[in-house]
# Entry
Amino acid sequence: MTTTTDTTNGNGPGSGSGSGSGNGASSAGPVGWLRERAWPIGFLIAALLIFSLYQWVVPNSSPEFKDFIRGWFNQAAINECIIWVIFALGLNIVVGYAGLLDLGYVAFWALGGYFAGWVMSPFFNQVKINFLGNPWPGQERGIHLSFWLVLPLAGLFCALWGVLIGAPTLRLKGDYLAIVTLGFGEIIPQIFMNAEDIKGFNLSNGVKGISPVDRITLGPLSNIPNVPEQLGPFNLNAKFVIFCLLAAFCMFVSLRIREGRLGRAWLAIREDELAASMMGVPLMRTKLAAYAVGASAGGIGGVAYAEHVNGVLPDTFKFSASITLLAMVVLGGMGNVWGVTLGAVLIAWINNTGLAQFGDTVNSTLGTNINFPAQNFLLFGLILVLMMLFRREGLLPEARTRQVLQEPERGEVEAVGADLEGDPV
# Structure
């Protein structure tokens, strides 16, 4: 019998893990070390190249090149792509790792965003609390906490809500769970939309939202030459670095948890919930942990998005946002951190600038007048159909998912076996 190497531990090139165990021939020497960490190094190199492009190349380039970059790769759109990566990584823990179909993930985005609006703005002007915050001039009243403190607090706040939402719903399975999460994803944004007057108390400012939020202070980092003391709405390149650091943190947490006991329990539930329970995996507690960890990433992303748009706008938290996030996870490769990252960047960029610029190019070339951005869901629908037909595992599939989805159907296997039995020896 031939002994084969187990490639389903998540350390293969298509697995989504960059933290290999260090064992085996593939880990020997610098070549093996680089191969195991190719994706994290690639993410770092890409971030450095984008930062250098906007920091030094674009300001000193020709007007034509500046117009091209502003049209196709607008820096605000690139920053938003990185924030979508944070959300997609959080949803990947719920859907890709634990196999729990969540159609209402936008609820955690809303909770994180409004938490930032509550504690980083003059919204609650009945009080005057400032703990390392950086309010705008003339808006000192309200609650003003440091951006760096709000990030973990928002993560904990959304993790708590993930447990509260998950506790009564995670006993359901499959389609029933998806319908319930869809309901929560619709209820929470609607509460914020209509919570301007709750018996005289203004919780969310209704359809007007909460704006502006406090600026980001850099503390000791401002001593570095050319680094500002605080980041306002137009410090896009510095915010790009911060958003990349937040995304890298979410990647690191996802990869490390996946290799631990909790991550293996999630994968066991995803593959076969009954078998996992028979092997001693506590189903309810493990599912709640997936919801809590995934929701905390949504809270962190919500704070980052509030800083990105300088406020919290209730129109952002639509059902379509949850569907877009799910498409990012499915198209990128469920369970694969790097596949989900790639899917999030591609879809977010297409939504923001790619489709509009492509439409302008086509219309100017052919003399047509087609509104391409209005057809984005038609495009994503076609992509999803084609992906499910020809590449169900996604662009960068996880090793386990690739092996399961590429297995021949039972009928094919039986047919091959019957042919072999009928052949003369």
User: Anything to note?
Assistant: The longest strand covers residues 128-131. The chain has a mean pLDDT of 85. The chain has 16 helices and five strands.
